[in-house]
Design a protein that fits this description.
alpha+beta; Rossmann fold; Translation Initiation Factor IF3; eight-stranded mixed beta sheet; five-stranded mixed beta sheet; 24 strands; 33% helix; 27% strand; disordered N terminus
C-alpha cells in the first residue's frame, strides 16, 4: 500500500461572518470549480464546476424543449451597424462591448462586436425567416458564452466572459409574447426552487433596471447568506422595439403586414455562485442532490480486510444501475480522514462508508452533508433508501434557505426602517414609481430596486422615500 499523505487538506476557509466575500473566494478556489486565466475577468471552468453547469443545463434544456423551444447556434461576432439599429440597446451595452478591429493583417472596415448578447443577430435572421403568420411562432434558444468587459469581476458572479443560455422568440401578438415572457420566468423559478433549492422572488423590474431595449423585464431574485440579492434570471418582453428597426414583419391571415412581437430570456453560470452563497458553510460546498456531480461517495473502510473492496464495488454498480450519480473512492494513497474532508469540501450530499462491521450488520454507514447527521442505510434496499434520503436533503436545503429568506425580509414603512433593513436583507416597501427615489435610495444606502412582486397588495399609502402617494410594492436590497 502506498504511503498515506499526512498534510492537512483544507488549509483555511475564512468564516462567513468574518468576511463573506473572502469566504466565497476561498470556497470557489479550494473546491476546484474553476481557475483564473491570463485575461482579466475570464475563468476556466474545471471538470467539477463544469459538471454542475452541465446538470443545470440538462434541467433547463429539458424544460425548454418540453415547451416547444428548439436550440440554434448564432455567430459570436456582430457588425457594429447591427448594434446601432436599436438605440436604447446599444447605449445600454456600449461600455461593456469588446471590439474586433483587425483580422490577420487586415484592418477591418467595420468593427465587429464580440457578442455581449445576441438580440441584434437573432433579429437580423428573424427578418429573413419570418414572412407569414404560418411561420410563427419561432421559439429558439442557444447555449453559448458572451463577453462583457466588466470593470470588477468575481468568479461565476460577474466575469468578462460567461456561459449562459439566451432564448429568443417571435410571436404574432402582444398577448402571445407576454404569455411567453411569464412562462419562461416560471421555468426559472421552478429550476431555482425545485432543482437548486434556492427560493426566489418573482416580479417586474422598474424602468430604470429593465433590460436595454425591453418594454418590460421580469426577474427571479434570490437572497444570499449575507442578505444581499442576486438576480438569478431575467425574462424580457420586447414588444415591437426590435422588430420595427429590424423590419421583422409578417402577413396576417387578412393579408396585412404586421410587426412581430418578441421576447428574450436568460440565465447563466452565475447560478453556480448562487448555489455556493445560498447553501455553503465553513466546510465548503453544500450541493443540492439534483445538480451534484456525485450524489453519493462510497468510502471503503479497512480495505485490507477481505471482502470490503469487493462489497464496495458491488454497491457502486448497484447504485449506478439505479440511476444514482455515485463515486467509489478507492484511493490507497490518502487516509480516510483526508477523503472525509475532501468530499465534505466538495459538497457531496451523502457519504457512504463500508467496512467489515457494516457488511456484517447489513448496512452502510452514512453522513448527510446538509446537516452532518450520521446514520445507516440497509444494504438490501440501498437504492430506494438512498433516493429517499437524497429527496429529503433536497427538500431540507430548500426549507433552510426559505426560512433564512423569510427571516431577512421585512415590510418597512419609513425611510429609516428601509435604511436599516437593507444592511442585511430585503426591504419590502411602497414606492411612488419615480426614478428620483430609486436614485436617492441607491446613493444613500447602496440598495437598488429588485422587482415588484405580482401580488401588489399595498401595506401603506405613501412612498417610503418621498412620502408622496404610492401604489407600487417594491423589494429593495443591496445586490451582487
Amino acid at each position: 500500500m502506498a504511503k498515506e499523505q499526512k498534510q492537512e487538506f483544507v488549509q483555511h476557509i475564512t468564516p462567513r461572518g468574518e468576511n463573506f466575500s473572502q469566504w466565497y473566494t476561498d470556497v470557489v478556489v479550494q473546491t476546484d470549480l474553476m481557475d483564473y486565466t491570463p485575461v482579466r475577468g475570464c475563468m476556466a471552468m474545471k471538470p467539477y464546476g463544469n459538471r454542475i453547469w452541465e446538470l443545470i443545463q440538462q434541467e433547463l434544456d429539458t424544460r425548454f424543449k418540453d415547451t416547444g423551444h428548439e436550440n440554434v447556434a448564432m455567430p459570436m461576432l456582430i457588425p457594429e451597424s447591427l448594434l446601432l439599429k436599436e438605440a436604447e440597446h446599444v447605449e445600454g451595452f456600449a461600455p461593456e462591448v469588446a471590439w474586433v478591429t483587425q483580422g490577420g493583417n487586415e484592418v477591418l472596415q467595420e468593427r465587429l462586436a464580440v457578442r455581449p448578447t445576441s438580440e441584434t443577430i437573432f433579429c437580423t435572421m428573424f427578418s429573413r425567416w419570418v414572412q407569414s403568420w404560418r411561420d410563427l411562432p419561432l421559439k429558439y434558444n442557444q447555449w453559448c458564452s458572451v463577453m462583457r468587459w466588466e470593470k470588477t469581476t468575481r468568479p461565476f458572479l460577474r466575469t468578462s466572459e460567461f456561459w449562459w443560455q439566451e432564448g429568443h422568440t417571435v410571436h404574432a401578438t402582444a398577448e402571445e409574447a407576454q404569455e411567453e415572457t411569464l412562462l419562461m420566468l416560471e421555468i426559472y423559478r421552478e429550476v431555482c426552487e425545485e432543482v437548486l433549492s434556492i427560493p426566489v422572488f418573482r416580479g417586474q423590474k422598474s424602468d430604470k433596471e429593465k433590460f436595454a431595449g425591453a418594454r418590460a423585464t421580469y426577474s427571479v431574485e434570490a437572497m444570499m447568506q449575507d442578505g444581499k440579492a442576486l438576480q438569478a434570471g431575467t425574462s424580457h418582453n420586447f414588444g415591437t422595439n426590435f422588430s420595427v428597426p429590424f423590419n421583422i414583419q409578417y402577413l396576417d391571415k387578412n393579408g396585412t403586414l404586421q410587426y412581430c412581437h418578441e421576447t428574450s430570456w436568460g440565465v447563466s453560470t452565475r447560478l453556480i455562485g448562487a448555489i455556493i452563497m445560498t447553501h455553503g458553510d465553513e466546510r465548503g460546498l453544500k450541493l443540492p442532490p439534483r445538480i451534484a456531480p456525485f450524489q453519493a461517495v462510497i468510502l471503503p473502510i479497512s480495505v485490507h480486510k477481505g471482502g470490503v473492496m469487493e462489497k464496495a464495488q458491488e454497491i457502486y454498480e448497484t447504485l449506478k444501475a439505479a440511476g444514482i450519480r455515485v463515486k467509489l473512492d478507492d484511493r490507497d494513497n490518502v487516509s480516510s480522514g483526508w477523503k472525509f474532508n475532501e468530499w465534505e469540501l466538495k459538497g457531496v450530499p451523502v457519504r457512504l462508508e463500508i467496512g467489515p462491521r457494516d457488511i456484517q450488520n447489513g448496512v452502510a454507514s452514512c453522513m448527510r452533508r446538509d446537516t452532518l447527521e450520521k446514520g445507516t442505510l440497509p444494504l438490501d434496499d440501498l437504492p430506494r433508501a438512498l433516493k429517499a434520503l437524497l429527496d429529503d436533503i433536497q427538500a431540507n436545503m430548500f426549507a433552510i434557505a426559505s426560512d433564512f429568506t423569510q427571516a431577512h425580509t421585512r415590510l418597512v414603512h419609513t425611510y429609516n426602517e428601509l435604511k436599516e433593513q437593507v444592511q442585511g436583507g430585503y426591504a419590502k416597501a411602497m414606492w411612488c414609481g419615480e426614478r428620483a427615489c430609486e436614485d436617492k435610495i441607491k446613493d444613500e444606502t447602496g440598495a437598488t430596486s429588485r422587482n415588484m412582486p405580482f401580488d401588489q397588495t399595498p401595506h401603506a399609502d405613501t412612498c417610503v422615500c418621498c412620502g408622496k402617494q404610492a401604489d407600487r410594492v417594491m423589494y429593495f436590497s443591496k445586490a451582487y
